[in-house]
Amino acid sequence: MNNLDSLLERIDPQRIPQHVAIIMDGNGRWANLKGMPRSAGHAEGVSAVHCAVEFSSDMGIKYLTLYAFSTENWNRPQEEVDTLMHLIGWAIERELPDLLRNNVRIHLIGDIKRIPDEARQRLINSREATAHCTGLNLMMCLSYSSRWEITEAARLIAREVAAGNLNPESISEDNFASHLSTSPAPDPDLLIRTGGEERISNFLLWQIAYSELYFTPVLWPDFDKSTYAEAIIDFQSRERRFGMTSAQVNENI
Ligand code: IPE
Ligand code: IPE
Ligand code: MG
Questions:
Q1: CATH number, domain with residue 128
Q2: Which tens digits make up the pLDDT trace of 146-195?
Q3: How far, in Å, CA of 70 to CA of 124, rounded?
């Protein structure tokens, strides 16, 4: 039995996370270690995305949210930004037949209007082409930051109040969350960050209030099904108490 098979045996199919979010970090360091340019790391990262999508589908995960490009990433050298934008547009177009075959629906999260025309059009095409798909929901976060998203939600709510369509007294947590760009997806059960850094880097700050966090030193281009399976096994060993006591949680099972 190979390593992946023995890991798969340890996964409880009854307790698969419904929503997994991933901070895909470490492409640049992966390339540096191999004496290659950072762009080679990003290109290799596309294969890891393919693998993560396929594994999520196979596991029956309903939502996979991938942090592909942050608001702050616009501050990288222009050449790297251009390469990344080109790669994102190229990769989504290349992956489209496979996404359709696997019944994967694409959602775009972030300030998409900042994405250069060619890549943006390819992204929008893939969102439209997969709109009928009912399997995995793949939420691609591009030009995204959580503070941007929360500020946008506040603006939308303020407009509704100003127009007289919303009473400030009726703003609840659920109402606020319904204005976030991840709505109506449930909050992530599991947040994975590759690349060894243990920080959130402006990702899903509202939505991860009770997510289980999993940090791995594996660099994103090396992320494979075994690394993913290990994260799910670790997730399944956690007790999610949501503020209650352990005894209460076990009573409710
Ligand atoms: C993640 O890898 C990809 C993006 C942020 C777009 P990095 O490019 O951040 O790689 P490191 O962290 O420098 O190794
Ligand atoms: C987070 O990675 C953003 C993405 C993976 C898209 P960064 O490499 O930008 O994060 P920091 O700068 O190390 O916090
Ligand atoms: Mg990084």
A1: 3.40.1180.10
A2: 999 999 999 999 999 999 999 999 999 999 999 999 999 999 999 999 99
A3: 18
CA angle (18 as vertex; 12, 20 as ends), nearest 5: 100
Å from CA of 69 to ligand 1 middle: 9
**Is 166 contained in some domain?**
no
Q: Which range marks the domain in which residue 134 is found? A: 16-145+190-238
Identify whether 246 is part of a domain: no
Residue 131 lies in a domain: yes
- Domain tally for the chain? 1
Based on the residue annotation, tell me whether 73 is a catalytic residue of this protein.
Answer: yes
**Exactly one of 25, 27, 102, 137 is catalytic; which is it?**
25
Single pTM value for the model: 0.97
